[in-house]
Amino acid sequence: MSGLKRGYSTTVSFSEISFSISFMDTEIFLLIFVQFV
């Protein structure tokens, strides 16, 4: 049971990290886009 719980928490943290990374990429892209315009 603890292994299943640990795997679930790892999946949640991984999805949170990937979401934050994609959000950061979007912010950086907007910053660069605004500077070029």
Key features?
37 residues, mainly alpha, membrane, transmembrane, 0% strand
Would you tell me the structural class of the helices and strands? mainly alpha
* Binned strand content: under 5%
Rounded average pLDDT: 78
Helix content: over 70%
Question: Could you explain the architecture of this structure?
Answer:
95% of the residues lie in helices and 0% in strands. It has one domain (1-37). It starts with a helix and ends with a helix. The longest helix is centred in the middle third of the chain and has 35 residues, at 2-36. With 37 residues, the chain is mostly helical.
Brief summary:
With 37 residues, this protein is mainly α. It has one domain (1-37). It has one helix at residues 2-36.
Reconstruct the topology from this structure:
Layout: H1 2-36
